[in-house]
Design a protein that fits this description.
alpha/beta; disordered C terminus; about 250 residues; disordered N terminus; 2 domains; four-stranded mixed beta sheet; Rossmann fold
């Protein structure tokens, strides 16, 4: 019976301890409006199951902690919070305009817990807007508490390459092959019954066919990369046929 009673007391004490994790904020500086920063920190802390207090630290105690940090004396700041803090934890935040950089704000955050040395972090917010410093402060606080905030990574949709140039290249290649075929046809005529012969047409036909083949292959590859449907292209000439085929989605 006594063991069960002790266990019950421990469970209730643990529950009360978890439910009474109080916190608050102390803010100095003029980088952003104090009310806006307080409201944002309150939202973040309450989302993490802390009971927020508007009277975590007096104004005089806040100024004393600020002076401690000016002297870079962390133990001084810890002593002030341990002695004069009214909550279990505390966020001390200081904001200041960055010198020589319009729109840039320096954020300094410290996370206090009774009996422990505070953790601190200092970050610059370039081209600072409410949206950017909200995210920055949330992530800073997460790191100081040992629970980094998760970032959402937006994926960029991939744009398909234009099919205009590949189509022009492919059409030009087919036309060049057809023209080359015509020249090859007339260049091959030289029989006794042929009234006219064109022996110089053969080299021209070979060159046109080679250029057309390269353009056709290049256009086909680019069209496949752009995506397309299966299709065949056939160029028929007297006595010869040239077939160019490709597979893809157009």
């Amino acid at each position: 019976m006594r063991v069960a009673l002790v266990a019950l007391v421990l469970v209730l004490a643990g529950t009360a301890s978890a439910a009474n994790r109080t916190t608050g904020v102390a803010i100095s500086g003029d980088g952003v409006k104090t009310g806006d920063l307080t409201a944002h920190l309150r939202t973040v802390l309450e989302a993490r199951d802390y009971e927020f207090s508007d009277e975590a630290l007096s104004k005089d105690a806040t100024n004393t902690i600020a002076n401690c940090f000016v002297l870079d004396d962390v133990e001084c700041a810890k002593g002030v919070f341990d002695a004069r803090g009214k909550t279990d934890t505390l966020v001390y935040a200081r904001t200041e305009q960055s010198k020589g950089k319009t729109g840039s704000v320096i954020f300094t955050l410290y996370w206090f817990e009774k009996g422990r040395s505070p953790n601190g972090e200092r970050r610059a917010c370039e081209n600072c807007t409410p949206a950017t410093w909200h995210t920055l402060v949330k992530e800073m606080l997460g790191r100081l508490q040992g629970r980094p905030a998760k970032r959402r990574v937006a994926r960029r949709s991939e744009e398909k390459p234009s099919r205009t140039l590949p189509a022009i290249l492919l059409a030009s290649g087919v036309a060049a092959i057809a023209a080359g075929g015509v020249f090859l046809y007339y260049g091959s005529r030289g029989g006794p019954n042929d009234k006219f012969i064109y022996p110089d047409s053969t080299p021209v036909g070979i060159a046109l066919a080679a250029v057309g083949g390269g353009a056709t292959i290049g256009g086909t590859v680019l069209l496949i990369q752009a995506g397309g449907d299966s299709s065949d292209t056939v160029a028929s000439l007297p006595g010869r046929s040239f077939v160019v085929s490709w597979t893809g989605r157009f």
